[in-house]
Amino acid sequence: MYVAWIGVIIIISYQSLTNFVEEQQRFGLIFEALVRVDMEEERYETLKELGSGNFGVARLAKDKKTEELVAIKYIERGKKIDANVQREIVNHRSLRHPNIIRFKEVFLTQTHLAIVLEYAAGGELFDRICNAGRLSEDEARFFFQQLISGVSYCHSMQICHRDLKLENTLLDGNPAPRLKICDFGFSKSALLHSQPKSTVGTPAYIAPEVLSRKEYDGKIADVWSCGVTLYVMLVGAYPFEDPEDPKNFRKSIGRIMSVQYAIPDYVRVSKECRHLISSIFVANPAKRITMSEIKQHLWFRKNLPREIIEAERRGYEETQKDQPSQSVEEIMQIIEEARTKIQTSEQTSTGPSNVVRGGEANEEVDDHFAKYLVLE
User: Per its UniProt record, what PROSITE patterns does this chain match (predicted)?
Assistant: First the structure.
């Protein structure tokens, strides 16, 4: 009888000790995380909110060490840290080019994963076109040359963007703005993945082969999206929307598949530019102009900036010198930790709440436009 009671006491004591140790370990992890949060939060001074979307909130901040302005993108910890977020961070980290927003680092707050990026003071190219109505051919070429330089570099790094559009091209604050490609949430690395077949992106910019729901070459699909961007800069409207019924997505998809577009008579565009656009808008991706052929096109090479010529000649080797301080392994560890919310008795939000701005975030076309796809 006494032996049995002693056994019960030992078991209870052991369980109590185990629970105590687990509680101490959990407290230690929380304390360690909070210390890291405090260290990172102290480094950046938040200045203002830049925007919001399904991803969360972006804020302008200042690095107190360097006085550099940065954009910090906050994504709520937990289920929002999905494969798209991981892909965006890992693929973006590997890119170093003057026409691509610079990835700097990631860190955790108590409630959010924070992605620190180069700040582009000039805003979206989309807003510039909205304000101007449309751009002159020379100005459109100036931005298109930079876009192609950045996308071509991505392709040389075996990364296709898959969501190229005006809203994902930012401008710096210089008088002659430098274009900066951003948002790699739908990007895909040929080194890590097979050929894409998912229908992702923004409908107005999507190539016909992407809508067909078969395997496709993401690089060739990016060429089509670059062509849509060029057209919108020149015309101030989307090429495959029905002017009489622009919100009819069924019609838009039909016009994309049949490559039904026109340049209005009131828009003055040179023959060389028209030739380039018609070479891009080809339904068969095997017959579409390639990125290297675009860079040799007569219209593209006119007034080509010296820095682009030099970068092409050097093969971008200088862009690889300034690598991010965080290794892929360290970043993956942070991402994995961000998938779990830290539970504290008095949880304070060091990051902003997840405010959604409707209609602006990217969504998979399979989800958002499935009812409009009438493909055979």
Answer: PROTEIN_KINASE_ATP (PS00107), PROTEIN_KINASE_DOM (PS50011), PROTEIN_KINASE_ST (PS00108)
Q: Say if CB 154 and CB 161 are below 8 A apart.
A: yes
75: β partners: 113
Closest CA to 166 of 183, 187, 185: 183
Q: What is the DSSP string of 59-81?
A: EEEEETTT--EEEEEEEESSTTS
Alpha helices in 1-64 (DSSP H): 2-43
Distance, CA of 171 to CA of 103 (rounded, Å): 16
Q: pLDDT means per 10 residues in the chain (376 residues)? A: 48 50 48 47 90 87 96 95 92 95 95 96 95 96 98 95 95 95 89 53 89 90 98 97 86 95 96 98 98 97 92 66 80 94 54 33 43 35
Write down the pTM of the prediction. Answer: 0.80
Active-site annotation, residues: 163
Strands (E), the chain: 44-53, 56-63, 69-76, 103-108, 112-118, 123-124, 159-160, 169-171, 179-181, 188-189
DSSP letter for 370, please: G
* Annotated binding residue 73: yes
Q: How far from 294 is each of 140, 164, 182, 223, 240, CA to CA, in Å? A: 15, 16, 21, 9, 21
**Residue 230: its H or E element:** helix 218-235
Whole-angstrom Cα distance, residue 369 to residue 376?
16
